[in-house]
Inverse folding.
């Protein structure tokens, strides 16, 4: 089951990251924004718009599958790993700067996910052992 979770959350992170990066690319090519049919045609002629749609649809189905099996607390936290992956890819793809607040934020996100995962593992271990004393 651990492989299922690992693969599932990596797939979810990949789909979410694809959606966010695609929206960023589509947004940069959509400027200047205009309320016209020509602008809509220009936006929807960009492949990045469709990358974003594929990313969101893939993330939705992956998330629904994970929710069937994974505990909600750690699952919800782990679903936010794309914040870190998008930040790291944005440095490379968009020449964004890695600042101390961003690094600290990423560390807090990852630490929170690790803490929730450890707490869930501990709760399952205690729940599986009827002789274990409550913490």
């Amino acid at each position: 089951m651990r492989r299922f979770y690992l693969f599932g959350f990596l797939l979810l992170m990949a789909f979410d990251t694809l959606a966010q990066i695609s929206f960023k690319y589509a947004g940069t090519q959509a400027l200047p924004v205009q309320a016209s049919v020509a602008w809509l045609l220009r936006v929807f002629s960009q492949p990045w718009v469709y990358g974003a749609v594929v990313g969101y649809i893939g993330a939705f189905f992956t998330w629904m599958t994970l929710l069937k099996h994974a505990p909600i607390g750690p699952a919800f936290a782990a679903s936010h790993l794309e914040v870190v992956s998008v930040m790291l890819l944005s440095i490379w793809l968009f020449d964004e700067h890695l600042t101390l607040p961003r690094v600290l934020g990423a560390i807090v996100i990852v630490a929170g996910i690790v803490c929730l995962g450890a707490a869930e593992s501990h709760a399952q271990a205690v729940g599986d052992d009827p002789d274990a004393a409550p913490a």
Remarks:
- Residues 2-128 form one domain.
- Residues 100-128 form the longest helix (29 residues).
- The mean pLDDT is 86.
- Residues 58 and 64 are 10 Å apart (CA to CA).
